[in-house]
Amino acid sequence: MTSSPVLPSRDDPVAAAASEWVGGPAGRRAVPGRRWWNPLRIALAVGCVALALGVLADKPCHDRSWESREDRAVWTSLCYSDVPFLYRERGLADGDVVYRDTLLEYPVLTGGVMQTTAYGAQALQGMVNPDPPDRAIAESVRFYEITAVLMAVAALVTIVATGRTAPSRPWDALLVAASPLLLFSAAINWDLLAVALTSVAILAWTRERPGWAGVLIGAGVAVKIYPVLLLGVFFLVALRAPERAVAFRRFVLATVAAATTWAVVNVPVALWAGDGWRYFFTFNIDRGADFGSIWYALQLLAPDLLRNDIDRLVLGAGLIMLGVVVVIAMLAAEPPRMTQLAFLAVAAFLLVNKVWSPQYTLWLLPLAVLARPRWRELVIWQVAEVLYFAAVWLYLAGFFDPENPVISGDVYAWSILLRVGALVWLCALVCRDILRPEHDPVRASIPSGGLTAA
């Protein structure tokens, strides 16, 4: 194990080249960890700047109060957010209680956060202006503001967890903090709650706290479904661990803790409001190909290609891709790192999912940084995501105003295929790192005993 943090300007070719603008790579005697501005604090400061810029980017919509999805400026200003619209459209503005009085297409912890935030928004609006011209619209803006703060806190937690997962590589947290994905997507929805819980669960696993890792996974699944994939990753790690019996005990403990936590959160709501609780599952089962997915792109480019129900295609493709992850994990000469497998599993899920909203890519951000912390690859992948981010909003401007499209359906479809191609390319690099460990930029900087953990 290295005695001091790995320095990007000495470890990453792109970072080394960029450092020439500020005096060149850090010297051999540099000891950044002894200063107050250590790598983690710098990453948190950069993250705060990125999140603040994200709020400023939403200002055109904030000034217009996100009044209507038919307002073209919501889309062309690239500042759309689900948050204020859902406040008005899911009964929160009318005093409804989620799951009991209104159907909600989110798991129960997300619903709980929405309900609590709604009460806070109403109280805040009462203090700011108790008699606005349109109470629902005014409260929905307050709802967005409180949510943006909560998501910022979740983002900072994610940055800290990422920086501490591989202790010898704290500077990798900066790759999360400075990401344009964080800037553009933080306040679109509540995904960063699940990202934070997942990131801390990974940290707990690397610190040999499988019980806490399971608790955090169970809570994460009650926010978004994807953290459950970590349990499969832990199983693969156990299969390849040198001390298999110990590893399987950790896996079982994490699984039991995750299932118990999920049940504690979900069962009371299921008993209290069964129809509302089940709606999340039926909504996702019944939906068709939706925005961002490869299935939607194929429908736009070749409408006759997917005439049948896509559920079987999604299931089949998902099983194949997850099977590929299992095969790679088992064939690797050296046990793969846990975060490499976690990145591949979540990427496989997104690649075949029926919907791939812009903010879903936040699920991958800390995992990609932990799996392959290389500036060039991460920049190329994120450029494709930023191009898609612009394309989806411009496409939706025409979707809600068909007589005045901004970009064509074909252009939008190709933007989807571009982001798919970029992610597949990044996955291929991670697979190569697993099969040929000498290419893995992380492996040399952590002790051999912690490879499967981190």
TrEMBL record:
Q: What is its main location?
A: membrane
Q: Where are the transmembrane segments?
A: 38-57, 141-161, 173-206, 212-239, 251-273, 313-332, 338-357, 378-400, 412-431
State the Pfam families in the record.
Answer: GT87
Q: Where in the cell is it found?
A: Cell membrane
- List the protein's name: DUF2029 domain-containing protein
Going by the UniProt record, its keywords in alphabetical order are:
Cell membrane, Membrane, Transferase, Transmembrane, Transmembrane helix
Its membrane topology: Multi-pass membrane protein
> Which species does this protein come from?
Phytoactinopolyspora halotolerans
- GO molecular function terms noted in the UniProt entry: hexosyltransferase activity
Q: Which InterPro entries match?
A: GT87 (IPR018584), UCP010361 (IPR016570)
| Family as reported in the entry's similarity comment | Belongs to the glycosyltransferase 87 family.
GO CC, sorted alphabetically, is: plasma membrane
